[in-house]
C-alpha cells in the first residue's frame, strides 16, 4: 500500500485538482487527529455484522497554522470553564459535552455543543476528516472482481451499496453462506447468482431506483463467470482488518504538514511493519501522542464525535426525500430552536473549513452519501 501511495500520489492529486483546482496539499499546517467508531475488525459473526451499518469510521479533528497555536492554547482553559468541565478531569472529551447514548438530534440541541462550535468558529481553527463507510468499503471487491466499465464503476458500486443497505439482512446471509470475501473460484458463479436474485427481489421506490436495479443486474450478469480475483485467498467472513491506510493517506498526501495522532497501538504497529515489509520509509512528518498531554487532540475527540453522529444521521435519510428540490433537513426532522442553532453552527464550521481548503475532507464513501452531505451542508467544495 505504501508503494502504491508513493507511486500514484501525484497522479491522484492531479485527478482531485481536475475536479476542484483550489485543493491544496502543499500546506505546512499542523493536523491533529482522533477517531470514532473503530470496530478494530469488521466481520460477519453469527450471521450478522459485528457493528451497526450506520456507525462508520471517522479519523479527523482540528487543523491549525503553527503561528496560531499559542493563542488557541491560551484560550482553551477559558473554553473548559465555559463548558463546565470539572477541574479534576485531566482531559476534555466528546462525552464531556454530549452524554453517552445521545444521537445527532440530541447533540445539536445541547448548549455545550453550541458553545464549543462557536468557539471553533471564533478562533483560527479548521476541521478535517477522513471517513470510511464500513458497508461500502466491504462490498466493493464484488464489483471490482467483475471488471465493470471504468466510466460506470463508481456508479455501479453506489447502486450495489444502495440495495445492500436497503436489504442488509438478506445480503449478509449470502455473504455468510459463501464465507465472503473468501468465496473462491468454484463457488463464485453460484455466489453471484444469489447476489443477482437478491438485488432483483429488493424493493425499489420510484423510477430512479428501478433504473439503478436494471443497470446493476446487467453488469452483474455480464461478470458472473469472470475470475473473481478479489474474492480468493482472503480470511473467511473478515470484511475490514485495519484502518492504517487512512492514517497513511494523510501522512503522504499532506507531506509538508505535521500530523499528530491520538495513540493507537495497532496502527503504530502496522505502520512500522509496513516499512519492514516494503523497504520503503514513511515520511517522518507524524507522531502518536497521549491525548491528556495535548489540547488539540482533545478538541479533535469532540470534532470526530459529532461528525460520527452526523454521518450516522445523514445515512438514515431516505434518498427519495433528499432528492426533492424542496428538501429541508429542518422541516423533515422538525427542528426546534436549539437544534436549528446547533445544526447551523456545525454547517458553518464545515463550510468555513472547506472554503479554506477542500482537501481537508476525504470521504471514501459512495455517491449517495456524498450527494447527501453536499446538499445538507450547501457545500460546493470537496471530492
From TrEMBL:
Pfam family for this entry, one: DUF3800
InterPro entries noted in UniProt: DUF3800 (IPR024524)
Superkingdom of the source species: Bacteria
Protein name, as recorded: DUF3800 domain-containing protein
